[in-house]
Amino acid sequence: MEWTKVTVTTLNESVEAIANILTDAGAEGIQIEDVTDVQISAFFPESIFVPERLPIIKHRIGQLAEFGLDAGAGTVALQQVADDDWATAWKKYYRPTRLTRFLTVVPSWTDYQPEDPREALIKMDPGMAFGTGTHPTTHLSVQMLEMILRGGEQLIDVGTGSGVLSIAAAHLGVSDIRAYDVDQVAVDSAKENFALNPVTKGIDAQPNDLLNGIAVPADVIVANMLTEVLVPMIPQAKPLLKPNGHLLLAGIINDKEAVIRQTLAANELIVQETLYMGDWVGIIARLKTDED
pLDDT (tens digit, 9 = 90+) per residue, 100-110? Predict the structure, then answer.
């Protein structure tokens, strides 16, 4: 079987949006490579006549500017690849990655040996349509979890994707984790990764649109998503935070930081810490108190 590889050259801030555009167009696998510009490669089965869908893909990429996203060059290139090449192409870029001092993401097919006896492994087999857990926004999210968690908390993971943040939280001692994603395929992928990590036993993973309909509060809510999704989620998170609870936000490109800060302030949430990695921002927020 042959596949059509569509590669889009773009900027960091548009990676997730373009990956979604390609998936909506029928791609069955996504590979992201960071170079001077980011290259997103999507793999389409031979049953899809890609040239017919290219105008739609290009049009939707062109529309990203209307949502405040800079797609950079936004160029689109096609290439035919054999089945075996596709099956291994994305894996060669996925290697064990130390996210923090004590947490390392490890591909499930590798025999990685910890370098430190205190090092906890997050085993992942994200499939070809979900993140590998090595993106800077994941680094920021896990670093924030390490800063905040003390063990025994109740946590909500919004937009769980591959489930990497839920697994990290379980390693850090969270006793009650609820993982949500609007995409059932993502929920299924997360559950498969939870099965690779015995520490996650008992995590509740369910499809849900952000925090709509969620009523049980939590000590920590973590969300690693695009700013355009975080903005409507923040008002939903506020009533679900317990006293002294924290909202951890990542997926924020640096020129969107002000928008997030404004949204937090409008919802009486105080920025407690801000982390930076390259073009990305992570924010730890808490409820405003009488002392603020």
Answer: 888 999 988 88
Asked if residues 131 and 94 have their Cβ atoms less than 8 Å apart, the reply is no
Amino acid identity of residue 292, one-letter, is: D
DSSP conformation class of 206: E
159 is in an annotated binding site: yes
What are the pLDDT digits (tens) for 229-275? Answer: 899 999 999 999 999 999 999 989 888 899 999 999 999 999 999 99
Q: Which amino acid is at 41?
A: S
Domains, in order of start, for the chain: 2-92 (3.30.70.120), 94-287 (3.40.50.150)
Nearest to residue 17, comparing CAs of 77, 76, 57?
57
257-264: long-range contacts, CB 8 A cutoff, minimum separation 24? 257/281, 257/283, 259/227, 259/231, 260/227, 260/230, 260/231, 260/234, 263/230, 263/231, 263/234, 263/235, 264/234
Residues 70/86, Cβ–Cβ less than 8 Å: no
- Four-CA torsion 74, 260, 274, 165, nearest 10 degrees: -70
224 is in an annotated binding site: yes
Average pLDDT over every residue of 188-206: 92
